[in-house]
Fold each of these.
Amino acid sequence: MRRLLHTILILAAASTLIACSTDTAVGDACAPRGKNMLEDLTFSTLSNPRSQRQWFSSEHAAGQTFEYSASDGVLTIFKTGGEPWFLLTQSPDPAVLAGKRITFGAELKLDLQMPTDHAFTPGGGLSLLARRGGKVVVNSSLEHEPRLGTTEWIPVSITVTVPPGTDMLRVGFLHQAEGTLRVRRPFLKLAAKKDCAR
């Protein structure tokens, strides 16, 4: 009886180890790969002279409708006026990423309401644009959920294939709503080896 119990315990332990190693392998295969190709992951250069910044802002009609700042690695974008959109971006080297499948993501915290002053896609979150010879070849803006409402910190990401020959790549954070968008832990990496259900 004691020998049978001992055998059962050994088999149970072995099964647990196999399950853990399988889960780890699946998790690794589902995770974006390699180094983070973004600069200034804590948004610490936002107020530096332009030549020292990694992130650059633009907004509709060059208005003064949005305020943005960073503290403790958290980017905060707040709408204060009547223009419809604000964008904070950086431009990774397209030559390194052309022809590759990539994932751009971050953690977002939303306090965003439906806008009443424009017909653009409402919300806040991720934006990715690629061009080749001046022509847009990838344009992904706010193609994730949630992008409106009030949330705690949530991870969001988009995965695209950058077409060969791409000569401009821009990733960033788009605000097209009323309220506040917060962002932390941005990343741009090679996409996972396989698609996994989320």
Amino acid sequence: MKKFFVIVSIVMLSLSCSRAKPDITFGFLQLVLYQGDSGVQEHFSFFIIPHDEDGIDNLDKLYLYNDKEQLCWEINNDEWIIQQDDYRTWIGTRSITIPEGTLPRGVYRAVLVNKGGESTERNFPFDGNVKFPFPDIVISGGNYIVNSQWPVNRLLCYDALGTFVNQITLQSLTGPISQLNLSSNIVTVALWAEDEANSCSAYTNVVNVRN
């Protein structure tokens, strides 16, 4: 009887997790430029909307390949970022980069693997090019000055601990800081410039707005 119970338990456990493949229902690659110590650095922001019959907790790993250049990035389930958007769940990372040079353009292949070992893949072509010089923001004498040719410019606002507070879409590239109506807990801001048509963005270092 005990042996029968063990066998039944094993069968029930095996049936509790389906053998169905996960699915990548949507995803994107966005090129983000950052200010580094040695100049501008390129990162990919890579996110997908996954589906698995046993839920997101059944997902194990996400890979991104550039087969032409023989590059591979592995993102484990304890490393990826989870975001909720209109009842959809996104998983991914903002840290796709290479030690030197620019990220290759072309086709990238995403592979999603669940804990049962089942996998699925989907290609993501990326041919975005940086069209504009890296932007800059200066705070001086109670005013802000943004040097940017990018189509959309936003301020990302942070408190004294570096925690993100909110963002402000700039209607003007210059003006008094007082007109931005910053809340009292905002201490620093960074400029986020975006070119949606080319899937590119640029993120500056933070500057203090309370000097």
Amino acid sequence: MKSEGVGFNAEGDAEGDRVADFLHRLRSEAAEGARYVSHYSAAQDTPPGVRATLRLEDEYLSETAKLTLEALESNPESGGDNSTWIDFKWKLAAFHNIQDAFAPFVYGGGSHLNMFHLWYFYYESKYILAELVLCGLNGYSSASNALSRLFLEFNAMQNYYYRRVNAESSFRAVAEYLKTGRHPSWGKLVKGAIPADAFCRPIRHRIDSNLQGLSAASSHPYHPRESHKRRVGTHPRQSMEGMFFWNTISFVLSPVLWMYSVNFPMLYFPRDTFKKCGFNPPMGLVVGQATAASLQHSMPPNDYEEFKEYASTNPDVSGVLAWLEGRPDLGASEIRATWNEEEDGPQSDSIELDQITKITKVRALREMMALASVPEHDQDVNAGTIEQLTTFVGWREIHRRAKERRKGRKKS
């Protein structure tokens, strides 16, 4: 007697379940919308880890990425546990913390949301920074280098539009960019991203040099000497040379932090705003000691003193400090009395913990609002169906219609 039935493949069914669970999670996340989280580190002596600063959870890390990071953190032979690796982590922390200096402005020239849209460039670059580190951890060197240039460009744009908005007392320039996607030439943009004085000229030179170097090595077809295939062969993968990807990122982070240093002088004059204002401190403008410490650790002492001296010449610094120091110090009970449970939830037993809660909430809110209700670009009149866009015959039809429209515009 022979019994026949449906075969059972435990391994195949398990794999199918994993894929189904994965797709279900993606659909659920798409339905819920984007999720914004932030964190705050009070570290002043030891830099927070790369994973903590960039919020790289286990689910985002491949086995290769985990091993690379573990080697960098623990093996001096691979570049970890030394002064340059520690400097890199401080630079990451400083870049993450400078957002606390972003003050809101109430200008005309568009929607009231533009006071948040102004900071879009920084928050997008923060996302790109996480992506390029992930590429480096996996050995995807070409992608990492290409993203390094994009990271630098976004931060040059951030400083340019920040300065332009303040100079014009209007958000018109930001609103126009968000509507059209068009910005000034890179020469004009880099020139306008920092003050036009002798102190800042070397910074402009460094930005230009980095943009040119990254362009030659990754953003355009590059010379064979730049090819990563020479060390890994056919398949993209991690290599001993690729383990040092973070050196390029560190080299790019330096001029980025210099730009923010000359445009946000209060980064060099930290104050305890909670002691003066309770849980209703001025949003942005004045930073805490941990933010200033991360910036100080991110550069050599001589550099830090140079930038601090330059910052002290800004007339806004003395005015802000005088206003803040003119306020009386609050006692613990007075600080606690300023907590708003309706907005911030139940109060903890620790003022320090509540301060961290407040700072992280403001950071996450700003990041979310930077993309809130951003206008869509003008629709491309050449747009077609997927089939038209991916076939020669379809694209020829799009080309024909575009040609007819151009003729029509000329006649009119």
